[in-house]
Amino acid sequence: MRRLFPHPVLSATLTLLWLLLANRWTLGSLILALILATLIPLLTAPWWPDRPKVRHPFGLIGYLLVVIHDVIVASFQVARIILFLPAGQIRSAWIAVPLDLTSPEAISLLAGTITMTPGTLTADVSADGRALLVHALHAPDPDAVRDEIKTRYEARLKRIFA
Question: What's this model's pTM, rounded to 2 decimal places?
C-alpha cells in the first residue's frame, strides 16, 4: 500500500482539494481526483527523501481555522488602511522573523500563511533557514508584528510538526 501511496496525507489532501476546486461532486471528478492524487505523489516521491514528521495532524484543522479568521480580519484592516489612512501615515516595514521551526515543510507553511494574509508578504528565507524576511504594509510596531507571527502561527506549527 505504501508503494502506491508514498504520501497518503498528500493524496487525501489532493483528492479533497480537487473536489473542492471542481465545485461538483460527480463520479468523473472523483475518479480524476483519485488519479491525480495517486500519480502526483508517485511522480514526486524521489524528491521527497524524508516525510514531514507531523505530530498532531488534527492540529492542522485548528491552524486552518485560525488562518481563515486572520485572512478575513486582515482583509478589512487592509481596506481600512488603504481607504482611510493618509499615505504619509502608512508605516510599512521590513521585519526579520527568527525561526524556531526546523522542518522545511513547516517553514514553507509559515511563509505561505504570512503571504496569504493580506498586508504581509514573505519576501525571503535566510540561507540557513533560520529567519524569514517579511514585509508588512502597516507596522507602526514591527516587534509586535514579529511577536504575533511567532505566537499566532509559528507556535502552532511547532506543536503540529515534530
Answer: 0.78
